């Protein structure tokens, strides 16, 4: 075995050991993270679940009443009771409350359905809990979600709103109260916490408010739902930030917070502090490995209690869709939870805000056919960039006229690319041709394409809107499902994606005269790139791939019409020849570039010393 073989085996062994070590560390980290999340989830379970024991006589599951009594402190009378439910409802939302915890039990959005046509519940199930954590003796605490409140009758107000309240107290002069007011024709609920005579029960300072919320599957594409399942928050200084549940599971916020939002793909639940801000927050999240649960949020918010005998903390809770205009009207920057552009392409959010969304909404006021709306939107965008598109086609025609002369230069210099580049620039300059003239439309379209990439998958207006064979424009338009997954492609065929790819290839063939056919990379990349994107776009929203398909079709038609009926190649040839005879004033930049090319050419020709 020679030296190189030994070194190779040593390196392979080191890589193997490193992989095993990394894998063990990842496994241990995953186990610790799971244990942490399970521990947090267990702490937030209802006390009945924690206090279940087996009856020694009958073998039945019963409650340890002594333990429950000790854990309720001065509120022991509220440890048991009969659950009663009441409803607040308007045209948009139906909220079912329970006196167990004095909290919403279910939240139904009346204008929406799940992907399989069932009623859409933004909240349901025992995991969802909201309540104060009241400190008790022996370092224990009572979560008010475990106590039975005294309900008050539903009150209908003159402005069309409805109010309900729940009280939990030790006497008529010592209680905490939750007051809910559902506004008329709104997704907003006024939620006020009143603490009356509680100064001897609650210490002055921050009181923990526990908010557990679970996002259940609502859409066809579970993967996209989880990618869009996020926690957003806005600090008192108006800074906004967020994280995705699949990327992070814990966050501590030590600054005052104005609002915090548990965002799903198309809906959200948001808590907004109105007069005083939340003092801080500790956020814990979990993404279950299986089932129809998209994600779980367990957030502890600190409410600043000043120790007064009568204290109120007013909030608003938004239960509703991620509709841009609806969220914007709240005037707290809640519309920022809608992903309209991020990362290096964050600037495209302004394209969406100032161009795409206003035009889209205007077209939506004219027709309810979203396939037609996207078509009109595509035509509008192409009209905006039409002057640049025309100039690119003129540039392509000029390059076509110059092709014979370029071929002669290429044959003359063969493999001497440096010399060819110098002479090519001279030819372009003498003919008055800008070789970058065809790039401007592409640069103009890039922000718009990226803006569409963000806008269409996030637009709730497209949710469950059908067009042609696409049953839901907000998700992929599957025409056939394989029953198994193909790597880098998926488990289905999206027809709009196929049409987008085909038209991209046709467009690349049309534009082949604008690329250097002698360079294999430049020659074949326009054909390879659409195929590479096939697997990515196969699982994206049908509205997006439909738009790209339309844009390609319009480009092909425009190019054919302009080059066939508008552009006169003979006139262009004559103009180029006339430009060649005119004296040229070389710009400083062009002169410097030519000088650099000549210097590089001389360096390459200078023989190297041995």
What would you say this structure looks like, in words?
- The protein has 610 residues and is α+β, with helices and mostly antiparallel strands.
- It has two domains: 65-337, Beta-galactosidase, Chain A, domain 5, CATH 2.70.98.90; 348-589, no CATH class.
- It is built from 15 helices and 24 strands.
- It has helices spanning 3-43, 47-50, 65-72, 222-227, 324-328, 348-366, 370-384, 386-413, 417-431, 439-458, 495-510, 520-537, 542-566, 569-581, 588-605; strands spanning 52-54, 61-63, 85-89, 93-98, 103-113, 119-123, 129-135, 141-143, 150-151, 155-156, 162-171, 174-182, 188-196, 205-216, 230-235, 240-244, 250-253, 257-263, 267-273, 280-286, 293-305, 310-321, 478-486, 490-494.
- Strand 5 (103-113) and strand 6 (119-123) form a beta hairpin.
- Helix 11 (495-510) runs antiparallel to helix 12.
- 32% of the residues are buried.
- Residues 1-9, 26-32 and 49-54 have low confidence and may be disordered.
